[in-house]
Amino acid sequence: MSKLSKRDLILNSIIKAYLDENAPIGSSELGSRMDVSMPASTIRVYFKKLSDEGAITQLHISGGRIPTVNAMRHYWADVFGDIDFNQELLDINDEMMLKILSDKHEVYTMVYAQFEQNLIEILNVKNRFLVLNFTKDEIVLKYDTRVEKFLQNIGEVSLDKLELICSQVGLSELRSKIRELKRAKILFQENEIFAYKMFEDERFKMILEPSFATHMSDGLNFDPIFESQYLGLKLRVKFSGETSTMICAGSVYNDYIKLLKQIREAA
Question: Is pTM, for the whole model, over 0.90?
Answer without folding.
Answer: no
